Amino acid sequence: MSQIEAGLLEQARSGNRDAFDLLVGPLIEPGYRLAFGMLHDREAAEDAVQEATFKAWTRLENVRPGWSIRPWFFGIVANQCRTIRRGRWWSVVKIAAPWLAMPSPEDQIVRGADVRRALRALPADRLLVLVLHYYLDLSMEEVAAIVGAPVGTVKSRMHRAFAQLRPLVDQVHEVMG
Amino acid sequence: MSEELLVSRVKAALDIAPADPALRARVIQSLPLNRRQAGAPRWSLAPAIAGLLTIAVVAGLVWANRFETRPGVSLPQVSFSACQLPVWGFGPYDPSTASLYQVGFLEVSTGMFTPAPSTIASHGEALPVDATGSRAISYDRAARTWVPVRPSWISPDGMSYVYLSGHVVHITYVRSQSDRVLLSGQQVAILIGWSGGLIYYSTHQASSSDLWALDPATGKTNQVAPMQPGSEWWYAAPDAIWGSAYYTGKIARYDTKTHLVSAWALDGLVDMIGVDSSGNAIVLRGDFMTESGQVAIMHGNGSATLLDAAGEVFKPTDITVVADGERTWFSADGQRLWVYSADTGLLLLDQASNRSLPSGLVVAGGCVSKAEMSLGSSAAP
Fold first, then answer.
1. Most buried by CB count within 10 Å: which residue of B72, B95, B205, B286?
2. Do residue B10 and residue A28 have CB atoms under 8 angstroms apart?
3. How confident is the model at residue B135 (pLDDT cuts 50, 70, 90)?
4. Are B298 and B304 in contact, with CB atoms under 8 Å apart?
């Protein structure tokens, strides 16, 4: 944690909301992207970030010396997304439902609906590392800090995510020729 | 596919909903000033916030109702996460209303069912029955009330609905519950529903049927498609009326703008089961004999998106289709609910984990918000 971060954290802990805004505010947009990557629903993603920010605001004492704010905050967002995903009672049926005589599969592919369908089928822990590393461009080390697992475990989850994702997306790729 | 290409596709697929630029300010501003007391007392604000929201929504609706005489009402689509889905089914018998039916809202995000108080007129029938012989109850979102007809019989402004009694077409005004005959003297066989301010219906002769348009304002009728053997008109869409030609593997489309009828075919087509919000025909492919079916959305003559590739989801009986903006809801066999959108694919709403639902569940309309739901009926006499 930099000296500036440490100073802002101290002020935020004393109840200075402006300091908290300077500290956590820049993370809200990437936090939303993380939540959208996990939930694929704009409104749910905004709710997740709102709730995570509230938790961050009320639990600043949990930030330990030497910790960086970013992985700590993203960890809260990720937990919030897990909670929301667990609360869902519906499930995806026929992930690979392709097309019989699609007029324009290109449209589907350009819009990425096929990929999002495949992403939704991933277990939360695999989806999380994929989104953090490839969508938010975080290093493996930072991803490991957020998910609370060793780098080796993160790489293993990433590998499994790709192995699961590839056939589903390849299927569409083959249709396209 | 290389990892690089896969990663670029993942990024592109997720880059479709950038954050609202005002999100940061909104989130920060929503934080309580006193963060140390923020945990517990936050709940005490909930009733006040709910009250304010209700007042705001009521005010908005009151303001909106000033324009209720406009020809059609376009209500905003409710997001999936906020969806309260109107459904109906068989509930415990209530002697006070002599009703076997239970209506209510299914919270899609949690699976919780909230029964809604309702007395549904059945027009002298033991059961509300629509022209296809199916029982039908719909939630009229504009009037915020339950009506004993299928959704396509509700007028575009939501303030009235039509129904068929014998061969006579009636119209009922939901606010006053007043009822009058709209059309008699014709052997109306199928009341299809509203499209573009007109009401479409068909009459039969032997195994042939034709298509008529009725202007509810003037009472004038006009035959728009002649008698055709082996055909039937079923569904009203915003710009078309759809029908099917038995045993030919074709469906028929009457274009309400050009007044032309065209025949569309699809390999393995069994029958039509509904339309989506864009007016596309939703059809069933499969085999009645084996009771297996695949649901497809037709985009053109011979082309369709197949929702269920393996054909294990739907059986070709008792499928109710409700269009809801970009989504389409399906209920089948009184046991299962599905929702389809191009973005999410087909999702199954698993009722196995939800014992509180009425049995024989049927979708009764598109999603409404919790605020709308709590406002109750605006259709009281």
1. B286
2. no
3. low
4. yes
| Distant-in-sequence, close-in-space partners of B337: CB < 8 Å, separation ≥ 6 | B85, B87, B106, B329, B330, B331, B348, B349, B351, B361, B363
Q: Which of A23, A28, A93 to mutate to test the interface with B (most CBs of B within 10 A)?
A: A93
Cα B339 from Cα B277, distance rounded (Å):
13
Specify the long-range contacts of residues B177-184, CB closer than 8 Å, at least 24 apart. Answer: B177/B121, B177/B381, B182/B214, B182/B216, B182/B219, B183/B214, B183/B219, B183/B221
CB pairs under 8 A between A and B: 184
Q: Quote the pLDDT of residue B292.
A: 63
Per CATH, the homologous superfamily of domain B80-375 is TolB, C-terminal domain (2.120.10.30)
Most confident of A88-92, A107-111, B16-20: B16-20
Q: Sign (positive/negative) of CA torsion B244, B156, B321, B338?
A: positive
Judge contact between A143 and A135, C-beta under 8 A: no
List of chain A residues whose C-beta atoms are within 8 Å of the C-beta of residue B33: 15, 17
> DSSP assignment, residue B153?
G
Domain ranges of chain B: 3-35+44-64, 80-375
Question: What's CA A167's distance to the chain center, in Å?
Answer: 22
